[in-house]
Amino acid sequence: MKKVSIVIMAGAALCALPAPAQFNLAGSWAQRQHEDRGERGGGPQIGDYTGLPINDAARLRADTWSPDQWTVPEHQCEPHPIDYAPLGPASMLITADHDPVSYDVIAWHLTFAWMNTTQTIWMDGREHPPEQAPRTWMGHSVGRWKGDILVVDISHVKEGWIRRNGVPRSDLAKITQYWILHEDILQLVTVVDDPVYLEEPSVRSVAWQAHTGYRMGPYPCSARVELDRPRGYVPHYLPGANPLLRDFSEESGIPWEATRGGAEQMYPEYQEVLKRLLSEDAQ
Q1: So what's the pLDDT on residue 155?
Q2: CATH T-level topology, domain 18-283
Q3: From CA 195, how far away is CA 203, in angstroms rounded?
Q4: Which of 6, 60, 80, 216 has a CA 20 to 30 Å removed from the CA of 199?
Q5: What is the pTM of this model?
Q6: So where are the chain's domains?
């Protein structure tokens, strides 16, 4: 009888353990910038849409966008949207809510350094709110485990941007995150499927490294008038009037047509198109 009780207790203990494929996100994570360092430093140049599967509507929005937008008080303390926030500055502090009995994770809370925005990923099986529910910068995230990958579906997002030079993302976009752990490296792959501004889904990845010494600090922000402007001023360029659009092409040596983005640039065959454009420019 005693042996049977021990076996039952051991079996119960094993059943209480989390599935070995799942991992614990909780902790402090330091952002690791590699191919994105240039964009996250001084920022991408105006007119650089290379590698983005954008359509004509997105191209027109970006062509008429002005970086002076960030100097207007209404936009100075604007947080990054959930599909852009991980690009940085984005060192993270991740905590979890647990069921007090089963200790299952009810929700993960991911706080990003820039503006201290927090994404809550619900793991308790709840559904997204109704379509008419308010849209927010972080949206509504629902997570599920697929093997050893945490898959997160995000809805109810405000309109945002794909690249910090005016390339837009609509509030109708479907955003999916894939969180993957490689030893002490946490990788995020984000897929944005936007029926308004993208010809095909946009895919980006970013990584963090476990950093037990990282301490999240506050990020206070107060808007102020930095430049005297007429009341109601909206920074913009009229179509065809942006004097900065060709600077990137001229400084980088990339043919103008190749800087305009589009789904065609997502495939290896575009190398042949690029060779032709370079040949034409050389003549």
Answers
A1: 97
A2: Lipocalin (2.40.128)
A3: 15
A4: 80
A5: 0.87
A6: 18-283
